[in-house]
Amino acid sequence: MTQPQFPPLFTGEAVTRDPFAQACARAVEGCDAGLVLYDLAADRLRAAIVFAPETALQDALAALPVCGVGFQNALGALGPPEVAVHLGWDGPIYVNGGRCGAFRVAASPSDPEAEPDWLVVGLDLWLWPATDEGGLTPDQTALYAEGCAEVDAVELLEAWVRHTLVGLNSWADDGLASLHREWGGLAHGKGTDIDVLGQAGHFVGVDERFGLLLRQGDTTRLIALTELLETLP
């Protein structure tokens, strides 16, 4: 297998176990920002990027939608133009309407107003279905089952990191306005009733920090991105 090539300041390393968990462990040990751990299996692409934000966690978590938009841009550049990618607020990736994977996020410390020592965003993408019985899980799909069989997983991983870097640079230079516009056009379920983190309501939109605005009856509840942080074992 060809080894992925990443932009300067990013260092790739293949692993055989959960890249997200290992990236978090390496971050705790003090690894450099820009570490990309990945596991490229025949039916699954898993990867994680270590970040070292220089802002409060509640602001730094914009890295999650940056990574999501980066993935959409990467697949958009490599896949057929008719393939539609949408992003669930809480991490799911949808391809042509079916769930095809998800993003994960962790950071430490978890105080929203504190600058985190590290932040890790993980990608888990299904390349081939787990079973040929697609009718058993009609809401789930896999990348190669959606007309993307010609998309090389190594190239997709490279493109994801590359487009994510473009998004990070845009954020640093121009703020989050363009990210809000682009992510808003990809938001799965926006304007509909959804259930997220055990809360049901109408997906109104997001606030300036990408917190979910969920209308429940006469009130609108704000669910911050910090609610998506995974607790390390």
Automatic annotation (TrEMBL):
Species: Litoreibacter ascidiaceicola
Example of a GO MF term: ligase activity
Keyword Ligase tagged: yes
Name of the protein in its database record: Biotin-(Acetyl-CoA carboxylase) ligase
Cited InterPro entries: aa-tRNA-synth_II/BPL/LPL, BPL_LPL_catalytic, DUF4444
Keywords assigned by UniProt, alphabetized: Ligase
DUF4444 domain mapped to chain residues: 198-230
Domain BPL/LPL catalytic: start-end pairs: 6-183
